[in-house]
UniProtKB/TrEMBL annotation:
This is FMN reductase. Signal peptide: none annotated. It comes from Corynebacterium yonathiae. The keyword Repressor does not apply. The keyword Oxidoreductase applies. Transmembrane segments: none annotated. Its EC number is 1.5.1.-. Pfam families: FMN_red. InterPro entries: CE1759_FMN_reduct, Flavoprotein-like_sf, FMN_Rdtase-like_dom, NAD(P)H-dep_FMN_reductase. Residues 4-152 form the NADPH-dependent FMN reductase-like domain. PANTHER family: FMN REDUCTASE (NADPH). GO terms for molecular function: oxidoreductase activity.
C-alpha cells in the first residue's frame, strides 16, 4: 500500500484548489492500482493550520501539535500532490509558510506533482517560475508535467486539454511511486521502495580506478 499525500492551500470551502487536488489524487490512485498496488490518500488542508503556522514562524519553541502531525505525514508519504491558488502571481503565503516550517531534507527524493489554480491563464507560468524552483530547492522529485487550471478555460479547447495533463502527470507520479511493469527499468533503478526515496550508492568492490580503465591506451 502506497501513501499518497495531498496538500491543498485553498482558502474557501469548497475550493478550486481542493477540487484539482482531488482529481489528481484519484487519477494517480487509478494508475497505481493498474500496477497492482493500492494507494491510501491522505489530505492536509493548510488553512486548518494557519494559526499554528503563524505561531511556528514567530516562536519556534511554542507547541504546534497539528503542525507536528502534518510534518509526520509528510515524512511517511510515498508521493506528494501540492496544489496552491495563485496570489499576486505566485503561490499563497500559507502554502509557502507550510514548506518553510519543514525540517531540512523532509522532501528529499519525494515524487511530487505541482499544481495551481487561478482565474486567468495569465498566471500559468507559476508552475515553472515559482513552484518548480521551490520544490527543486527542497530536493523533491518533481514530475515533468505540472497542472494549471484557469477558471476562464472551462468549456474551451484548453479546458479539454487540461484533462490530458492530469492523466499525464498521474502516470508520471505513479511511475515514480511504483515500478512500471510494461517497460524496462531505467538507469534510476527500482522506485518501488519508499516513494522512490532511494540513493544510488557505489560499491567499493565494483569500483575500477580510472588508471585501470585506461590501461593499454596510448601505447
Amino acid at each position: 500500500m502506497r501513501s499518497l499525500l495531498v496538500i491543498s492551500a485553498g482558502l474557501s470551502q469548497p475550493s478550486s484548489s481542493r477540487r484539482l487536488a482531488d482529481m489528481l489524487a484519484e487519477a494517480t490512485r487509478a494508475k497505481i492500482s493498474a500496477r497492482g498496488e493500492g494507494a491510501q490518500i491522505d489530505v492536509i488542508e493548510i488553512r486548518d493550520l494557519a494559526y499554528e503556522l503563524a505561531t511556528a514562524m514567530t516562536d519556534r519553541t511554542a507547541p504546534t501539535p497539528s503542525l507536528a502531525q502534518a510534518k509526520q505525514r509528510v515524512a511517511e508519504a510515498d508521493g506528494l500532490i501540492a496544489v496552491t491558488p495563485v496570489f499576486q502571481g505566485s503561490y499563497s503565503g500559507l502554502f509557502k509558510m507550510f514548506f518553510d516550517t519543514l525540517e531540512p531534507h523532509a522532501l528529499d527524493g519525494l515524487p511530487t506533482i505541482i499544481a495551481a489554480t487561478a482565474g486567468s491563464s495569465r498566471h500559468a507560468l507559476i508552475l515553472d517560475y515559482a513552484l518548480r524552483p521551490l520544490f527543486n530547492q527542497l530536493h523533491a522529485s518533481v514530475v515533468p508535467t505540472g497542472v494549471f487550471q484557469a477558471a476562464e478555460d472551462l468549456g474551451t479547447p484548453e479546458g479539454e486539454r487540461f484533462t490530458a495533463r492530469i492523466e499525464r502527470s498521474a502516470i508520471q507520479l505513479a511511475d515514480q511511486m511504483v515500478t512500471p511493469r510494461d517497460r524496462v527499468a531505467g538507469i534510476a533503478g527500482d522506485f518501488s521502495g519508499r516513494g522512490g526515496r532511494s540513493t544510488i550508492r557505489l560499491s567499493k568492490e565494483n569500483f575500477i580506478p580510472l588508471e585501470k580503465l585506461l590501461e593499454g591506451y596510448g601505447k
